[in-house]
Write a structure and sequence with these properties.
Elements: H1 2-20, E1 23-27, E2 33-40, E3 44-51, E4 54-59, E5 68-74, E6 78-79, H2 83-89, E7 102-112, E8 117-126, E9 129-144, E10 151-162, E11 178-189
Antiparallel strand pairs: 1-4, 1-11, 2-3, 2-11, 3-6, 4-5, 5-7, 7-8, 8-9, 9-10, 10-11
Length: about 190
Amino acid sequence: MKKILAAVALVGLSTTAALAAPEKYVLDSSHSQVVFNYNHLGFSTTWGMFSGFEGEIMFDQEAPANSSVSVSMPLSSMLTGWQARFDHFMSKDFFAANGDEQVTFTSTKIDVTGDNTAKITGDLTLNGVTKAIVLDAKLNQAGDHPMAGKPWAGFDATTTLVRSDFGLGKFAPFVSDDVPLQISVEAMKAD
């Protein structure tokens, strides 16, 4: 009986240790971007970006599947390179949004696919619609930042959104419905 109780106690301790392992990292807003593009009538590829957003990563470097990520950004932080394009995106043709509307992503599952790669499943809320998406993610580097002198981590990820899934399908298919995203973030260990 003592052996069974000892085994149960060890399992309980190891479960508690595993749950406590993720450490909080906050995004470095100055080095985190989401870049998107779309085909415009077959003539060109048009680019845009979100930058300066906020979020946190609960990062477990030893067991990455135990990690999580949550990010939010105001729709008004979108950069299009041309004010008239931004204004059109904010019109009733697309977002019909005010500057306070938030785009959010919250992970629900992380499947490790390699030494530095994973598929991150999560809920993306865009234009008032929430859908599950999958990010193909890669850990670029984790370690002490040479200038900040504290733990830092950097990640890249990609996915493709179908804009009509989020009520943003105006002019499809002439303007591509599929919108590839390239994501690059840096995060610092929270104090």
